[in-house]
Specification:
883 residues; alpha/beta; globular
Length: 883
């Protein structure tokens, strides 16, 4: 496997999300042995364009060697991930060696250096050669990190000669990192750091044949943290010159290379003075204008020089920038200029959308910007519509012709539609006609509408896991009806693997999973094209067949223990001497019209950005080389909408919480009507992990966190349901009437965030007041996001208790519909969607985990405990079945 960059990509892009030191989410997944979800993290990196994925398991609480071995062995069974090289990253050589034994194909090791001397360097390099691995070599020797041109090159040259002449490593398998340091720090010795890196790169590439050069590009601009516009300009200028000098690899998006020509002339000149150290007062001169570019996003929106250009250019600019202020007057001017209103659509408006499509496809525009563009397009077309209809009526001809017609629907039982709506908007921007049937659509209605509207393909969406089963039903019914049109599968819980295993076999007409909106245009374009469709579908079928075969082989290798063995390895909690904390009330408590203003600071913004396919953690994403500009624009829009939400009461938040006397009975939790505990109220049914755990790791079950009956203790279980979507329909209807998809999606996404914030805030009150077992808790917002508190709030339908049907008990216990108006669909989706539910556990050892795959013996036992037929239990637990 070659490490040479493709001709179309100047850089090999390294994905770092599979790094426990840099990703709290990945670290949590590995700590909980949730390797299936950890693989999804790796898969997402590859799908996002990573050419290498960096895997690091260095953490004091992990068995790093075992974690590295387990993860890399699983990666080898996933063709979508295994097609790119793995960078084994560790400060422990034993972990690197363990990883090398598990990698198929060429690996990259990060890193080796001469800091411990030549002999240890040779030993490590010889081992890498035996494994056929490439090496990242730091410009670091016995005297420390290199900072001058001469030291950078001399160390790399010395290392290169040892590696190629003595060890026999190929030049192409050597990646030098000559150390990017910050410039413009105010310290004169630092002024030449960027030049030193660039010139060292030039020397390395000219004199050390085959070797790659990499660097941490963002380091160069650290002095201007907080000023994103100046930082991005520094990155662009630095990359422009470093690439010309031979830079081949780095953690940076290739699309950023083209920003160089768009930097304002005065800023470019002063940044270039700093990067190239062209004058001694370069830092001072850049500081003079730096403040002028802080918050540049708003300045650019206010720049009206584009209003002097011809109407065609003004319409294109408005579409690309998402500016709707002048679109009606510009559209009317174009209508009067062109012979027919349809010419305005087919001419300047479609030209503008063509630019949007190109920029989106190239990764230079992102979903929030595209949805804004769609809003502008809808307003323009809305203005032209009366003229189009009048002309159509008079001439008896169609007003326009789309590339294709696509039916979209959220399947029966599911009410989540943000992702579907985003995809629909993106496709409309690419001139496809969308027939959106909405949410909770039965398969009969989907098939009927597809036939009546003569659509080219059907797109299904869903979020909750029962929707996966419903999608398979739609596929089988399409097969029974003899349909042949392609079937598209989308939604957060879907995956290419699940589609290949569970849905595609049900339908011979072609089934394709579409990961997100950025992939939808390319997939649908291939399916619509008469020449490309058949080979594309054949390629997908072949890929899915391989995935299915690989998965089945991997499942045969995965060892699951019997339910008896798993129970024997339950979490060993010492109940002697433990006194379960007593809540301040028994039964339920309702919170109506919770103050939304109190929740703003509790919002976790990272999932909000991921809704819009902007990948990264908040607040770091605001400074991200790739997504930073779009993220800042989106954040500004969100903050403005929050002001409207608070001022005009667009949303209303409600919650209900309850506590009940409880005792553990096997894997289940029994609840009692009162503290006397003589009369049983109901049983909450739990599942247990059955994966074969290494020594010292328990097979977890939520029931383990409640004192068992035999312990004779008075324990408690809590539960909650919250919603933040009250009154949302009225506002969404207004946006729909105005053709404002962007604001509609934004409001739904913010309602979701407020609901999650309310769930988090209420959990805090439970810990400190309502249950009070952590009355002195003092945590920061970051601590809360990292779940550094005592107790957990697992939700039915999610990894620790994957059976969505357990919501029925919870909703009855809390009388949810009467108290706060939230209801359940037949698939156990909550209405309104911006709602969160779950249980409360208080024990100090309670923690989150994933059940993973389970055996038939546990499903039989579970069905018997719940008093339901086996096939019903299998229906709710389908994603977890290991047989």
């Amino acid at each position: 496997m070659s490490l040479k960059p493709a001709p179309s990509a100047p850089f090999i892009v390294i994905g770092e999300r599979t790094n426990v030191a840099g990703s709290a989410r990945f670290k949590k997944l590995i700590a909980e042995d949730d390797y299936d979800a950890a693989l999804t993290v790796a898969r997402q990196q590859v799908e996002s364009g990573a050419n290498i994925i960096d895997v690091n398991m260095d953490d004091a609480m992990l068995d790093s060697e075992a974690a590295m071995e387990t993860f890399l062995k699983l990666v080898a069974t996933e063709p979508e991930i295994a097609r790119v090289p793995i960078m084994i990253d560790s400060s422990k050589w034993s972990v690197i060696v363990a990883g090398l034994k598990c990698v198929q194909g060429k690996a990259v090791v990060n890193s080796i250096s001469l800091k411990e001397g030549e002999e240890p360097f040779r030993e490590k390099a010889r081992l890498l050669k035996r494994f056929g691995a490439a090496a990242v070599v730091m410009a670091f020797d016995e005297e420390g990190q290199a900072d001058t041109i001469e030291r950078k090159f001399d160390i790399c040259k010395r290392a290169y000669e040892i590696l190629t002449q003595e060890v026999g490593l190929a030049g192409e398998d050597i990646i030098f990192d000559p150390n990017v340091f910050a410039v413009a720090t105010g310290i004169e010795e630092h002024d030449n750091y960027a030049v030193n890196f660039i010139e060292a790169t030039r020397l390395i590439r000219a004199n050390l044949p085959g070797a790659h050069v990499s660097g941490g590009i963002s380091n160069v601009s650290f002095s201007f943290r907080g000023n994103n516009v100046v930082r991005e300009a520094m990155h662009a200028v630095f990359l422009y010159h470093a690439i010309k000098a031979g830079l081949t690899m780095g953690i940076v998006n290739a699309g950023q290379l083209e920003v160089y020509s768009e930097i304002p002339a005065d800023l470019k000149e002063r940044v270039e003075d700093v990067i190239l150290n062209r004058r001694p007062d370069g830092t001072e001169r850049l500081l003079e204008i730096a403040e002028d570019y802080r918050g540049e996003v708003k300045k650019r929106v206010a720049d009206l020089t584009w209003r002097t250009k011809p109407v065609e250019e003004r319409l294109a600019h408005a579409l690309v920038k998402g500016i709707s202020d002048y679109v009606i007057e510009d559209t009317e001017e174009a209508r009067q200029k062109y012979e027919r209103p349809i010419h305005v659509i087919e001419g300047p408006l479609m030209d503008g959308l063509g630019i949007v499509g190109e920029l989106f496809g190239e990764g230079k525009m992102f979903l929030p910007q595209v949805v804004k563009s769609a809003r502008v397009m809808k307003q323009a077309v809305g203005h032209l519509l009366p003229y189009l209809e009048a002309e159509k009526k008079a001439a008896g001809e169609a007003a326009s012709s789309a590339k294709g017609k696509i039916l979209m629907a959220t399947v029966k039982g599911d009410v989540h539609d943000i992702g579907k709506n985003i995809v629909g908007v993106v496709l409309q921007c690419n001139n496809y006609e969308i027939i959106d049937l909405g949410v909770m659509v039965p398969w009969q209605d989907i098939l009927k509408a597809a036939v009546e509207n003569e659509v080219d393909m059907i797109g299904l969406s869903g979020l909750i896991t029962p929707s996966l089963e419903e999608m398979a039903t739609v596929a089988s019914e399409m097969e029974r009806a003899g349909m042949t049109m392609p079937l598209l599968i989308g939604g957060a819980t879907t995956s290419k693997l699940h589609t290949a295993i569970k849905i595609a076999p049900e339908y011979s007409g072609g089934t394709i999973q579409v990961q997100d909106a950025s992939k939808a245009v390319g997939v649908i374009g291939a399916l619509i094209d008469a020449e490309k469709s058949a080979p594309f579908q054949a390629e997908v079928r072949k890929e899915y067949a391989t995935l299915k075969k690989t998965y089945e082989a991997a499942q045969r290798q995965k060892k699951l223990v019997t339910i008896s063995q798993a129970r024997a390895n339950r979490l060993d909690i010492d109940w002697s001497g433990y006194s379960p904390p007593e809540p301040n009330f028994v039964g339920t408590k309702v919170f109506k019209d919770y103050d939304l203003a109190e929740l703003v600071d509790a919002i976790d913004w990272t999932p909000f950005f991921r809704t819009w396919e902007l990948k990264g953690n908040y607040p770091e994403i605001l400074d991200d080389n790739t997504y930073g500009s779009a993220a800042r624009e989106l954040m500004a829009d969100a903050e403005e909408m929050i002001e409207n939400i608070l001022r005009d009461h667009w949303l209303r938040a409600h919650a209900v919480v309850g506590f009940w006397p409880a005792a553990g009975r096997g894997d289940d939790v029994v609840l009692f009507t009162d503290e006397a505990r003589r009369e049983e109220l109901c049983t909450v049914h739990m599942l247990r992990q059955q994966i074969d755990k290494r020594e010292g790791r328990a097979n977890s079950c939520l029931g383990d966190f409640i004192a068992p009956e035999e312990a004779g203790l008075q324990d408690w279980l809590g539960g909650f349901v919250v919603t933040a979507a009250g009154d949302i329909d009225r506002r969404l209807a207004a946006f729909e009437e105005a053709g404002d998809d962007y604001s509609s999606i934004l409001l739904k996404a913010l309602a979701d965030r407020f609901a999650e914030a309310l769930a988090e805030a209420l959990h805090g009150r439970v810990r400190r007041e309502l249950w009070g077992y952590a009355a002195d808790e003092a945590l920061t917002s970051a601590d809360i996001v990292r779940e550094k508190y005592q107790g957990i709030r697992p939700a039915p339908g999610y990894p620790a208790c994957p059976d969505h049907s357990e919501k029925r008990n919870l909703f009855e216990l809390l009388d949810v519909e009467r108290n706060i108006g939230v209801t359940l669909t037949e698939s156990m989706a909550m209405i309104p969607p911006a709602s969160v539910s779950g249980f409360y556990f208080s024990h100090p050892q309670a923690h989150y985990f994933g059940i993973g795959k389970i055996k038939r013996d546990q499903v039989d036992d579970y069905a018997e405990r719940k008093g339901i037929p086996l096939d019903e239990a299998e229906h709710w637990l389908r994603p977890n079945l290991g047989y």
